[in-house]
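User: Here's a chain of 188 residues. Predict its fold as tokens.
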Amino acid sequence: MTQPKRIYLAGPEVFFPAAEHKAIVAEKKRLLREYGFEGVDPLDTELVFSDDESKPDRGHHIYRANRELMDSCDAMIANLTPFRGISADPGTVYEVGYMASQGKTAFGFSLDSRRYRERAGSTDQDELGHTIEDFELSDNLMIEGGLCESGGQLFVAEQPGEHRFFSSELFRRCVRSLSQTLTTVSLH
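Assistant: Prediction complete.
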């Protein structure tokens, strides 16, 4: 029997209260199992820190552990709902780029249906006179470009989900498309 394809679950959920994080990740993993995939959350590591390890060293330790998880995965689904600002969580954005640079398929979803420019104030320049990009995309062109280049895409909610940062229906759309994409790739 073949091993199920492993799907990395990137997103800001790692910063949520433990019960919230656990519930959302459990639902993501359940939906992935329906399609024969294994979900891999960034917190699926057994990190042990020494008492004398500095905070920066702990941060680098977490980075290496998450990179190893990504390396062990076949694809990713990233929660790109704006977090702490007008754009997606920067760690999640890095993870999208990392996976795409390895030639792994990356899908994303956002529960904010506004375009990036609208979230930035619907103007040509910010208060410092810096240009605001206007490509009618849901987020920065590099994020959406990376998803598309990897063979994935960004799904945007048309209505609110059961949580401000999660919708089972929207996540299922990502999983369904990922399944079709990986099936097509494996047939070639």
